[in-house]
Specification:
Blueprint: H1 2-14, H2 19-57, H3 62-89, H4 93-112, H5 120-140, H6 149-172, H7 178-193, H8 203-227, H9 233-255, H10 259-279, H11 284-296, H12 299-306, H13 330-353, H14 359-374, H15 383-403
Helix pairs in contact: 1-2, 2-3, 2-4, 3-4, 4-5, 4-6, 5-6, 6-7, 7-8, 8-9, 8-10, 9-10, 10-11, 10-13, 11-13, 12-15, 13-14, 13-15, 14-15
Length: about 400
C-alpha cells in the first residue's frame, strides 16, 4: 500500500492538466491513505493490548512497545489528515463522509487508550468524535436526497454505536451524579434515534441494539428510583419511566425471541414493582398484582424455551454484546422466575388476610388457588422441560382467574 500511495502521488504530479484524470488519481491516493490509516490503527490497537500485558508483568520492555504504539498511532492520524484534504479538494462527498467516520473511530481509539473512568479527557475526545459523525451526516444531507443511502446508513449506525458506547461508559462509571443521569439518558435516546429499525440486512442487529437501549434506560431510571428517598412527583415519574422502558425492552426481546434477555428485563421490572410495594403501603396490593400480571404474561417466551431446538441450548453470543453483564443463564432465570412467582403470591395472600373488608375474601381465595397452582411447577435441569412445566402452570392460572371474573 505504501508503494501504491507513492506511485499515485507521482502520477498526480506528472499528470497533464486534465481535471478528470488528475482528480481520479487524487481519489486513488486518498483511498490508499485511508486504507493505510485503518491498517495502522488496527496494528496500533494490537500493540496497545501487548503493551498493557507487558505493564502487568512489570517488564522493562513496555517502554519500547509503547513507542511502537505511538508511532503507528501518529502515522494513522497523518494518513487520515492527508486523505481528508484530498477528498475535500476533489469534493468527493461520500468518501469524505466515510473518512470522517474513520477519523471519529481514531479519536474513539485514543479515548479507549486512556486509563480510568469516564474522565474529562475521555469526555472531550468522545465529543470530538460525535462532532465528526454529525459533520458527516450534515455533509451527506437528508437520507432520501443524498444519493448515497448506504453511506448515510453506515454513518448513522456508527453514530448510534458511538452514542451507545459513550452512554454505557458513563452509566457503568462509579458514582454517576444526578446531573449526569440526564446526559446519559439523552445519549441513549439519540443512539436510538440513529438506530434504523426499517427492514434490511442489519435489521436484527438494529432491533437488538434498540432493545438494549430500552433496557439500559430502564436500569438507569430504576437505579435513580432506588436512591430517591422522598415520596413525591419525582419518585413517581422515575417509576413510570422505569416501567415504560422495561416494557419496551421486553417487547423488542419478545419479537427477537431472545428468552434470556426477555426474562432478565421482565424480572427487573417485577423487582421495581416489588420495591414500590414495599415503600408505598397505600398501593402495595396494586403493585404486587401488577407484578404477578407481568410474570403471567411470560407464557409466549416460555413456549419459545419449551420448543427450543436442543442444539440451540448452548448460549450464543449476541451481536456486539457478548460480554453484556446482564446476560444470564436461562435455567437460573427460570429458577428466579419461579421464586418471585411464589414469593409475590404469598405476599398478596398475607396482605389480604390482614384486611377485615369482605371484598378481600374473594381476592384471598383466588390468590390462594393461584399459589397452589404455582407449586406444581417442576424444576428440571433441562430448560425445555422446566419451561414446559411453567407453561402448564400459567395455563392453569388463566383458568383460575377466569373462574373469579
Amino acid at each position: 500500500m505504501l508503494s501504491s500511495c507513492e506511485y499515485y502521488r507521482r502520477a498526480g504530479l506528472v499528470c497533464a492538466d486534465e481535471t478528470h484524470k488528475k482528480d481520479e488519481l487524487l481519489r486513488r491516493t486518498a483511498s490508499v491513505c485511508n486504507e493505510l490509516a485503518v491498517r495502522y490503527m488496527n496494528d496500533a490497537q494490537q500493540i496497545y493490548v501487548k503493551y498493557l500485558e507487558e505493564c502487568e508483568k512489570k517488564d522493562g520492555n513496555s517502554k519500547s512497545i509503547y513507542k511502537q504504539f505511538s508511532a503507528l498511532s501518529r502515522r494513522s492520524s497523518e494518513c487520515l489528515d492527508e486523505a481528508t484534504a484530498i477528498f475535500t479538494q476533489v469534493n468527493d462527498v461520500p468518501n469524505l463522509a466515510l473518512l470522517y467516520c474513520n477519523k471519529a473511530r481514531y479519536i474513539r481509539f485514543r479515548a479507549h487508550c486512556i486509563q480510568g473512568g469516564f474522565n474529562s479527557e475521555k469526555r472531550s475526545l468522545y465529543s470530538q468524535a460525535e462532532d465528526l459523525y454529525r459533520s458527516a451526516l450534515k455533509l451527506l444531507g437528508p437520507r432520501e436526497f443524498c444519493g448515497a443511502t448506504s453511506v448515510w446508513d453506515l454513518v448513522s449506525w456508527e453514530l448510534s454505536c458511538h452514542l451507545y458506547t459513550r452512554a454505557v461508559l458513563m452509566q457503568d462509571s462509579p458514582g454517576v451524579y444526578a446531573n449526569e443521569v440526564t446526559e446519559v439518558a439523552e445519549a441513549f435516546k439519540h443512539a436510538l434515534k440513529y438506530c434504523l429499525l426499517s427492514p434490511g440486512p442489519r435489521q436484527y442487529l438494529y432491533q437488538f441494539r434498540a432493545a438494549m437501549i430500552y433496557h439500559r434506560l430502564g436500569s438507569l431510571y430504576h437505579s435513580q428510583y432506588r436512591i430517591t428517598q422522598e415520596e413525591g412527583p419525582r419518585r413517581r415519574s422515575l417509576l413510570n419511566a422505569t416501567c415504560s422502558q422495561y416494557e419496551k425492552a421486553a417487547m423488542q426481546f419478545a419479537v427477537l425471541e431472545d428468552a434470556a434477555m426477555f426474562l432478565t428485563v421482565r424480572l427487573e421490572h417485577v423487582a421495581a414493582l416489588e420495591t414500590h410495594a414495599a415503600v408505598s403501603p397505600n398501593v402495595k396490593l396494586k403493585s404486587l398484582q401488577n407484578a404477578i400480571e407481568l410474570l403471567r404474561q411470560c407464557h409466549s417466551i416460555m413456549k419459545v424455551l419449551k420448543e427450543k431446538d436442543p442444539e440451540e441450548q448452548r448460549d450464543t453470543p449476541k451481536p456486539e454484546e457478548a460480554d453484556e453483564k446482564t446476560l444470564r443463564n436461562e435455567h437460573s432465570l427460570l429458577a428466579l422466575y419461579e421464586n418471585r412467582l411464589h414469593y409475590i403470591l404469598k405476599n398478596i395472600i398475607q396482605y389480604c388476610i390482614t384486611k377485615t373488608n369482605k371484598d378481600y375474601e374473594k381476592i384471598t381465595d383466588m390468590y390462594k388457588k393461584l399459589y397452589c397452582a404455582s407449586l406444581r411447577i417442576k424444576k428440571n435441569d433441562d430448560v425445555r422441560l422446566y419451561a414446559s412445566s411453567i407453561c402448564d402452570v400459567l395455563v392453569s392460572m388463566d383458568v383460575i382467574s377466569k373462574d373469579f371474573e
